[in-house]
Write a structure and sequence with these properties.
The protein has about 200 residues and is α/β, with parallel strands linked by helices. The protein has a single domain, classed as Ribonuclease H-like superfamily/Ribonuclease H (Nucleotidyltransferase, domain 5, 2-Layer Sandwich). A 6-stranded mixed β-sheet has the order 1-4-3-2-5-6, with helices on both faces. Helix 2 packs parallel to helix 3 and helix 6 packs across helix 8. The longest helix is centred in the last third of the chain and has 24 residues. The chain is globular. The two termini are about 20 Å apart.
């Protein structure tokens, strides 16, 4: 059984190099979503995650996802889902059998996507399955995966995690948080794929 590094172990590691703001595109309008689609549609693999406004009441069903993010090698696209064209483009990318979408803990995302967008995501890989195959029994998150593979520390803001992702205007920290979740997942997948 492989050991997942502790929080203390991770806290002593050097920082994982995040995608900076100039490589992150917020997509909230039709024109932006069409440009993002052109950038993403031919990618073989994209990092993928979603964000939803948190629920605080027992049995409350989330209305999310409110944000869907995709990353390629040096860029990330953070889609807000208010605009119909944005929703259509996200649905098209998620339903594409030719693009492998990779991320962590994606079962909940799939449930929300089916309910909110009414589509079945195709060719999606939860990277946890790759770690399970290598002997990691527990589910491993992106932070632990970055620590295991790169011996680096991915900073994830607790404040951003629990923030209101349904806001029409996202903060800079939300945009970067979302982008780097997908970006780090892609980097982890690339590293595992290179190991064979």
């Amino acid at each position: 059984m492989m050991k997942i590094p502790s929080k203390e172990d991770i806290s002593n590691l050097p920082l994982f190099p995040l995608l900076e703001r100039q490589g992150v595109f917020l997509v909230s309008k039709s024109s932006e979503s069409l440009a993002a689609y052109e950038a993403l549609k031919d990618a073989a693999v994209i990092g993928f995650d979603t964000e939803s406004k948190p629920t605080f009441v027992k049995n409350e069903i989330s209305s999310g996802p409110h944000v869907v993010q995709f990353a390629i090698r040096d860029k990330a696209y953070v889609f807000q889902l208010f605009d119909d064209t944005c929703r259509t483009v996200v649905s098209k990318l998620l339903a594409s059998p030719s693009i492998l979408k990779v991320g962590f803990g994606l079962s909940g995302d799939g449930v929300q996507i089916r309910r909110t967008l009414g589509i079945e995501p195709e060719n999606v890989l939860d990277i946890n399955t790759l770690f399970n195959a290598k002997g990691y029994i527990k589910e491993i998150g992106v932070k632990s995966a970055v620590a295991v593979l790169f011996h680096q520390r991915l900073i994830k803001s607790r404040k951003a995690t629990t923030s209101n992702w349904a806001n029409k205007v996202l903060s800079e920290s939300q945009i970067l948080y979302a982008a780097n979740d997908a970006f780090a997942a892609l980097k982890v997948y690339d590293s595992i794929a290179a190991l064979g």
